Amino acid sequence: MAEVAATVPQSVARRPRLRGATALLGTVPFFAYVTIFLIIPTLVVVIGAFAGDGGATLDNIKALGDAYILDAFGRSIALSAISALIGAVLGALLAYALTTARPEGVLRRVVTAAAGVLAQFGGVTLAFAFLATIGLSGFLTVWLQDSFGVDLYANGVWLFELPGLALVYTYFQIPLMVIVFLPALDGIRPQWREATESLGGTTWQYWTRVAGPLLAPAFLGSTLLLFANSFSAYATAAALVSQGSPLVPLQIRGALTSEVLLGQQNVGKAMALGMVVVVSVVMALYTLLQRRTAKWLG
How far is it, in rounded angstroms, from Cα 132 to Cα 118? Predict the structure, then answer.
């Protein structure tokens, strides 16, 4: 009996350890995925950015100062900023409209489900959809021309340039904003507005002094997330832009696959490293803003 009593506490003590080991075992697929598709490619990019024919070199990093690369970074940043800002404003307005609907209503469920699908709708499929709609021979372009005499491309074929890319990118930026900003709007309590009105405050004062400051970190953080999403997009731009490489992802593709300019693979990796740095800074700021949002609205 004494031996049994002595062994029971030991078996009980082992159970938390077994549960902890089982929990860690369940994370193995996740860490394997992160290692294979994130950590290893990042290391390849970092090492390749400083590699040359004769060993380590800074020539690839210095090449980032070339005019065409700086122009590509400038265009990518401008495109990302424009599409992120438009998507953030329109998406925030749509998200606010959803907060006025019933939380368990059909309208809100349908819109949020559609936003989840459309936020991932990109690449060649999205490019084809816009070409079929407002391309040179798109049905909307032809209908406006035949019915009203309106020529969408009277001042040039803007669909294949930055204005067109901004329009296409905004298509998936708006639903993404709805997804990431809606929880912050749900965190605003109705009692705060009632308290403002009971103290004689107006709607403008409520939004500028109560809800606005509380939602500002979430809005800015969501905008930064949209910026990173647009900055790293590749397939949609590759499907639309057939001439030249105005964006960094397209420049990287050209450096890695070009048969004319040989030996540019490591320059492409240096450009990829530059993108990693930009996205890392943006995501670090996004994390800080999200912590403040969770602190205020949690």
Answer: 18
**Rounded Cα–Cα distance for residues 220 and 290 (Å):** 9
CA distance 80 to 172: 12
How many CB atoms within 10 Å of residue 212?
13
Per-residue model confidence as pLDDT tens digits over 112-169: 999 999 998 888 899 999 999 999 999 999 999 999 999 999 888 898 888 999 999 9
Using pLDDT thresholds of 50, 70 and 90, give the confidence band for residue 75: very high
Name the pTM for this structure: 0.85
Q: What are phi and psi of 210, to 5 degrees?
A: -120, -70
Long-range contacts, stretch 106-115, CB < 8 angstroms, 24+ apart: 111/178, 112/178, 112/179, 112/182, 114/175, 115/175, 115/176, 115/178, 115/179
Between β-strands 55-56 and 51-52, what pairing exists: parallel, antiparallel or unpaired? antiparallel
d(CA 233, CA 23): 35
Q: Which of 246, 161, 76 lies closest to 153, judged by CA?
A: 161
φ, ψ of residue 51 to 5 degrees: the values are: -105, 145
Q: Which tokens is 181 given?
A: 């900003």
Q: Quote the CA–CA distance of 23 and 19 in Å, as a whole number.
A: 6
Q: What is the pLDDT of residues 188-219, one digit of tens each?
A: 888 888 888 888 888 889 888 888 888 999 99
Rounded Cα distance, 29 and 35, in Å: 10
Angle (nearest 5°) at CA 172 between 169 and 176: 130
The structure tokens listed for 244 are 């030249």
Phi (first) and psi of residue 258, to 5 degrees: -65, 135
As a whole number of angstroms, the distance between CA 76 and CA 271 comes to: 12
